[in-house]
Amino acid sequence: MWKLKVAEGDDPWLRTLNGHVGRQVWEFDPHLGTQEERSLVDEARRSFSDRRFQIKHSSDLLMRMQFARENPHVTNLPEIKVLDLEQVTEEVVTNALRRGLNFYSTIQAHDGHWPGDYGGPMFLLPGLVITLYVTGALNVVLSIEHQREMCRYLYNHQNEDGGWGLHIEGPSTMFGTVLSYVTLRLLGEGAYDAQGAMEKGRKWILDHGGANAITSWGKMWLSVLGAYEWSGNNPLPPEVWLCPYIVPVHPGRMWCHCRMVYLPMSYLYGKRFVSPITPTIISLRKELYVVPYHEVDWNQARNQCAKEDLYYPHPLVQDVLWTSLHKVVEPILVRWPGSKLREKALRTVMQHVHYEDENTRYLCIGPVNKVLNMLCCWIEDPNSEAFKLHIPRIFDYLWIAEDGMKMQGYNGSQLWDTAFAVQAIISTNLGKECGPTLRKAHEFIKNSQVLEDCPGDLNFWYRHISKGAWPFSTADHGWPISDCTAEGLKAALLSSKLPSETVGEPLDVEQLFDAVNVILSLQNADGGFATYELTRSYRWLELINPAETFGDIVIDYPYVECTSAAIQALTSFNKLYPEHRRHEIENCISKAAKFIEDTQAPDGSWYGSWGVCFTYGGWFGIKGLIASGKTYNNCPSIRKACDYLLSKELASGGWGESYLSCQNKAYSNLPGDKPHIVNTAWAMLALTDAGQAERDPNPLHRAAMILINSQMKSGDFPQEEIMGVFNKNCMISYSAYRNIFPIWALGEYRSRILDST
């Protein structure tokens, strides 16, 4: 059986700042578990597979089964369902909250965070498998059990038409289908294995034009593997890293995720690296194309992209740019003396690769650049210490559930979820009953703050200050993020108001000041807050976004979510420490509130860029304006936002928003107009903050009834449709949201509405 291990790391090649706090790694133990326990796991797997076309999201059952054994959940509280609004009483809500809190405390790890599935995208695992295959480490690094579960995951998320999507709930795309098919082949699956699944996948590829119509990221991975030619790629010249920073297209001015992915990609392109050709690769060359491999027109293939993948079509300026680089510049750079410049550029790129690796303890900012950096280190020196240091950090990205083993979109969402969980628990006014839970969570938050800036000249490395920030996941990861810092600060400040006997000693005041300093340093001239850094270049740079599948990736845009979180954190801080940088904080809040008002759509909505979608943006937009001192009565933006949310309430009560809202930028209900507990909770929190109870409390009562009736017998809440998003078009799982937000919404409802009446 599989076992989740938390805050452990005995591999000599692992590095850590804080004893691996937050680390979550699955290991296989053939001797673990009774026959009954193994049978329960097998049944969970069978059940998911049987319903995989109807329910595409795992319920994280393997983790829940493990914690049920380790932290037995005992409660005598009855399960109460309500049939009408009059039954939504304080007693019923309190009962639901106690049941929810009791259960949620049992799935907290001993280091204080809540582990969970942060999967969803289908293009992450293929990059890892291709990298390990190319480096000859596949069967050394991944056990047979790992490989079996990866195959299970891929088969479970194959669509009925034979293809695979960009993410687990998405329709089939060439990017998802080719990479998933290739991954299964590299993991040892035959071209005719798995009851026809492989043939269906291959048929989808050929029926839609063949692998030459894959997106640019897919072309790059296939070129590395030797199943596509580098001449069929648009140029990614590493020489751009030698340009002066003043040039608007300098990578240092781009969004950090964008530059950290294209950094190692430019190395691979500059090297034109190709894996040793094996019989499997030769076979793939025959399987993936509608014409013989040697007859593919690679020049034409450079700009081919299947219509199913084309979220961001290349504008004409891109086609002109890539053609000019391909036909004019590249021939110069691959021959002497231009090749000398190429060599210098490749050395510069590897400098930055190593800096990123070392300052994230070889986790890297995300899974894509993690495996790309690892591959670059191996190409530079197959026996390098850097490559060996990368290996054990692979497992930080792997997560297993009843649907199989996936690669997560980060090394987890540990800090983010824990900061929200603390706020949710405290909102219930039942914190005294959750003392041990809050104490562990508070300790985790204190242990996860980044305590130092990255070394060296931050300008040279294009890094922002990080001392005092909180990351999305763990301190070892270390990248500072505006809203994570804000939510971490809010949770720390709330905890400081509780007795130290309950939650432990508060965070040192100087560390609070450091967090405020980071937040203030991240405000842009327009008042908004981006994610990791200041917005460093111009919106028109999106014209050269080469990734056909994703939108808004080139620069770090300001977002309503980040801006609102900053306002909330600074307002909370200002109440406790009114003299610390008071004028700066007040000016920051004022400018940020204006940004939120200015970015509101005419219909009263805000587009949510990191959650689904307008309910998420609405929660942050309203909450930020309320925190800045505005009210429903004196702020037209809040009134419009409330009217917008109320207009989206379902006839049955509650809210249920589809991920299609994100990609189409227009509100879409879930199929069948069904409510979703997370959307319902977000809308409920927003309207509660805006004083909806004073005007018409019935929408809140109906929402509360939805949440109460959704609660399961165990006190857990069900996993419903996917609720996270990035870059407009790719969905990602926030598995803790199913517990955090119903508890938070019912907590605010109980303490602010039922108590007041």
Descriptors:
757 residues; mainly alpha; two-stranded antiparallel ribbon; 31 helices; 4% strand; globular
Brief write-up:
The protein is mainly alpha-helical and 757 residues long. It has 31 helices and eight strands.
Walk me through what this model shows:
49% of the residues lie in helices and 4% in strands. It contains 31 helices and eight strands. The model has no long low-confidence stretch (mean pLDDT 96). It has helices at residues 35-50, 61-70, 90-106, 124-134, 138-141, 144-156, 174-186, 197-207, 216-225, 256-271, 279-287, 298-301, 316-333, 338-358, 367-380, 385-390, 414-427, 435-448, 458-461, 482-496, 500-503, 509-521, 560-576, 582-598, 614-627, 636-647, 660-664, 677-689, 692-695, 698-710, 737-754, and strands spanning 2-6, 24-28, 164-165, 172-173, 398-401, 404-407, 724-726, 730-732. The chain is globular. The chain has a two-stranded antiparallel sheet with strand order 1-2. The longest helix is centred in the middle third of the chain and has 21 residues, at 338-358.
